[in-house]
Write a structure and sequence with these properties.
Blueprint lengths: L60 H25 L7 H4 L3 E4 L5 E5 L14 H11 L12 H12 L10 H9 L7 H17 L2 H11 L9 H9 L8 H10 L15 H17 L5 H6 L18 H14 L5 H4 L4 E5 L3 H14 L14 E8 L6 E5 L24 H10 L15 E3 L7 E2 L2 E2 L14 E3 H6 L3 H11 L1 H11 L23 H12 L3 E2 L5 E6 L2 E3 L7 E2 L3 H17 L13 E6 L5 E8 L2 E9 L24 H13 L44 H4 L45
Parallel strand pairs: 1-3
Antiparallel strand pairs: 1-2, 3-11, 4-5, 4-16, 6-9, 7-8, 10-13, 11-12, 14-15, 15-16
Helix pairs in contact: 3-9, 3-10, 5-6, 5-7, 9-10, 14-21, 15-17, 15-18, 15-20, 18-19
Length: 769
């Protein structure tokens, strides 16, 4: 073989030699003759030189375009994934929280309870001009632009935030609602992204009206007011329905800077607030929601002073608690449901009468207390007032301050009512056509033995119950009328036995005393008020007497709404609890208590009135219950140790040796009733008492055939001639009964321990009132 280099080519599969193609051989560089420099196999193109140095670090335009396209794809995939993964969350607890609002009958606010001052309203309740003001301030294209997210505004806000021009929202009303209702107030990129996604989804699920309504109810307006209704109250003391265009524009201005634009809290910011207000009104004109002429006459509506949160101080807490109990016991709203908030509760309370009751207590009780008297630390007062015809509670006094004394003295049931219970015995006697032990019909003119500590006599003879009269006074023979005037215990205990303690109890329940009242026991002692009924209970029962025996449960709530929807309330029904004859007979007798008995202080009311005094055991409470034809009210002064909560006697309180029902309670009753009815004409009682019940039917007792004594000879040194003697008519009217002597059985006993007919010991009031 030759040592020379060999030149060869692969065999042509066609069998032809390389030289047979007719093509010239390649050059040393591998290029075919005539081929232009460039890519191999592509004639005429020159090969691109390799990048060197710093140029290698710069991406080519192909790389840049590819990267951008990749990012777009990734971003789109990310948005798609986020849209699929991010759901509309449950609402924030704080966004749905509402306070319950308690109102007087005229719509003015009594109190709010709950942590958040918010009261939701329907969009239809918001005046159109107020709606337009908000739209002009926050999102003028809200209804015309279907987009839930304003991308340009978001980017602009983001740029301003990054460049130090301040944090800005750049959000539509939909986005702001999402932030308020579903998310939070933190300003982060993640929250903003979630806000946009949820806004888009929400925009597809809810109508514009629903979103706008939610926005108005969740936005913060300053002064701790969440929602447009709370704002209307906080700044202008009115409901949202009553807002003017100018006021609505001001509230809309606050959305941009709630605290800064409060011109009352920050007077120096008023020019800025006015500029914002003008901007809102200008937007309304531009959008043709307000005419130029209307705009020209619109003046800046300076809001009222900010009212500090009064919470449940004063009478508010007592009223709120009474309303809660009322709603629960009447089956309207239980405590758990009410605690969800958002209820607007209109009570029957009359603001003027409520204020009058507070003033009467302050002037006639609290003003007489002194820090130097230990007994005055124990003084408590409860009061209630009811319109007899309607059963509406128009005033309720629970104590000096709910934040200082938590138990309401108007509704508590742990103090004896004392002698204010006695009228129920008389009413029961008439209802049941009762007779004395010797068979005489019981009327106001029936004579009983008023001897002190006289033993009560039953069908089977003497019992072991012998109640003492106040100050151990012996009255001798005395009519029921005078015994009522002087609140003689021995007479009423025997009368209860004659009527039947169970019947007396039934009558009291029919009049309005709850059947489950503590110590409402069917024993002769029931007449002396051993039952622990509340002031409000007693007011209801006396209102029944005032309404001629027609009874209906008291009413404390007139209307309840939530989110604009009204809650159905039970209708009040009445029935003839006792006959008109029985009720009017009792009223006629109670009239003489005020005219010349233990309740003369009530004459200060200056119009026809009746009433009864009462004192609890050991003078732990003093009562006055009374009524005019158009208003029944009860006042009780109670003794309670503020440290231990124990009931205490009122001896020495108010600078008096003792406090009885004819003193501070009657004086307070008169002052309140006079003020409450000052603007109303005086009404006379229209009475139809039982035959033989008129005072003219009563004969002097010393003219009785049985030789009884004249009650005017009573050893009571304070006896009034007007209340202890009666004129003798020339003839007894037809159909009337002459005075009848009650049971003379028994006599004085040495013990003062009260016992029932069955021998059981009973603790009874020892005062007459």
């Amino acid at each position: 073989m030759s040592d020379e280099p060999q030149s060869w080519a692969p065999r042509d599969s066609s069998g032809a030699g390389a030289s047979s193609t007719g093509n010239p051989p390649p050059t040393a560089s591998g290029e075919q003759p005539g081929q232009k420099p460039g890519k191999p196999g592509k004639p005429g193109k020159k090969a691109r030189p390799r990048r060197t140095g710093w140029r290698r670090a710069i991406p080519t335009w192909r790389m840049t375009l590819g990267t951008l396209l990749g990012l777009v794809v990734l971003l789109g995939a990310g948005i798609f994934a986020a849209y699929r993964l991010v759901d509309i969350p449950a609402a924030n607890a704080s966004a749905t929280a509402q306070s319950n609002v308690y109102l007087y009958s005229d719509g003015s606010v009594i109190a709010r309870d709950g942590d958040v001052n918010r009261e939701k309203v329907k969009l239809s309740q918001v005046p159109p001009t107020v709606q337009h003001a908000v739209l002009a301030a926050e999102d003028r294209d809200f209804y015309t632009d279907d987009r839930a997210v304003d991308v340009k505004a978001m980017l602009r806000a983001g740029w301003n935030t990054v460049t130090g021009k301040g944090k800005q929202g750049g959000s539509t009303i939909t986005q702001q609602y999402v932030k308020n209702y579903y998310l939070g107030q933190e300003r982060t990129v993640l929250r903003k992204a979630k806000e946009a996604i949820i806004a888009v989804k929400l925009n597809r699920q809810q109508t514009k009206d629903q979103i706008f309504e939610g926005y108005l109810n969740t936005s913060y307006f300053g002064r701790n007011a969440y929602g447009i209704q709370a704002a209307a109250q906080a700044y202008y003391g009115k409901n949202v329905e009553e807002l003017t265009t100018a006021e609505g524009a001001y509230l809309a201005s606050l959305l941009n800077a709630p605290s800064a634009y409060d011109v009352v809290a920050h007077p120096g910011n008023k020019p800025a607030a006015q500029r914002r207000w003008n901007y809102v009104l200008g937007g309304m004109v531009k959008e043709r929601w307000l005419t130029a002429a209307e705009r020209a006459t619109t003046r800046f509506p300076t809001p009222g002073e900010a009212k500090p949160s009064n919470g449940l101080s004063g009478q508010r807490g007592y009223i709120v608690q009474a309303v809660k109990d009322y709603l629960n016991r009447r089956g309207i709203l239980d405590a758990k449901t009410l605690a969800t908030g958002g209820y607007r509760i209109t009570t029957t309370l009359d603001k003027a009468k409520q204020d009058a009751f507070v003033e009467a207590v302050d002037d006639n009780v609290m003003a007489k207390t002194s820090a130097d008297r230990a007994a005055d630390r124990n003084v408590r007062v409860g009061g209630a007032s009811i319109v007899p015809k309607t059963g509406k509670v128009v005033a309720l006094y629970g104590g000096i301050d709910y934040t200082k004394q938590y138990v309401s003295n108007a509704t508590r049931r742990d103090y004896q009512v004392g002698s204010v219970f006695k009228p129920f015995v008389l009413a029961s006697a008439v209802v049941n056509d009762s007779t004395t032990q010797d068979g005489r019909r019981i009327t106001p003119n029936t004579v009983y033995d008023g001897t002190n500590k006289r033993t009560v006599v039953g069908v089977q003879g003497a019992t072991d119950y012998a109640p003492a009269n106040e100050d151990d006074v012996d009255y001798g023979d005395i009519t029921v009328r005078i015994a009522t005037d002087k609140s003689v215990n021995s007479v009423y205990a025997q009368m209860a036995q004659d009527v039947g303690p169970a019947k007396v109890r039934d009558t009291a329940i029919a009049l309005g005393i709850p059947a489950d009242t503590p110590d409402l026991t069917a024993a002769p002692s029931i007449a002396l008020g051993t039952a622990n009924a509340s002031v409000l209970d007693m007011a209801e029962a006396y209102a029944t007497l005032a309404d001629h025996g027609r009874h209906g449960r008291y009413v404390l709530v007139e209307k309840v709404t939530k989110d604009g929807a009204e809650i159905e309330l039970p209708e009040r029904t009445t029935d003839q609890a006792v006959s008109r004859e029985a009720a009017d007979t009792t009223t006629a007798v109670l009239r003489s208590v005020v005219e010349g008995g233990t309740g003369t202080a009530a004459q200060a009311v200056g119009r026809p009135a009746v009433g009864k005094t009462g004192t609890a055991e050991e003078d732990r409470a003093a009562w006055f219950a009374g009524y005019t034809p158009d208003l029944a009210s009860v006042v009780a002064v109670m003794g309670q140790n503020p440290d231990t909560g124990a009931q205490t006697p009122l001896y020495g309180a108010l600078g008096l040796s003792r406090v009885n029902g004819g003193g501070a309670p009657a004086e307070t009753w008169a002052a309140y009733t006079e003020a409450a009815l000052r603007s109303s004409p005086a009404q006379e009682f229209d009475l139809r008492p039982a035959p033989g019940s008129d005072e003219g039917d009563e004969l002097l007792i010393d003219e009785n055939a049985d030789g009884g004594t004249d009650p005017s000879s009573s050893p009571d040194p304070d006896a009034s001639p007007d209340s202890t003697s009666e004129a003798t008519p020339d003839n007894t009217p037809d159909g009337s009964a002459p005075p009848t002597t009650g049971t003379s059985t028994g006599g004085n006993t040495s013990g003062d321990t009260a016992g029932g007919a069955d021998g059981g010991a009973v603790s009874v009031p020892d005062g007459n009132g």
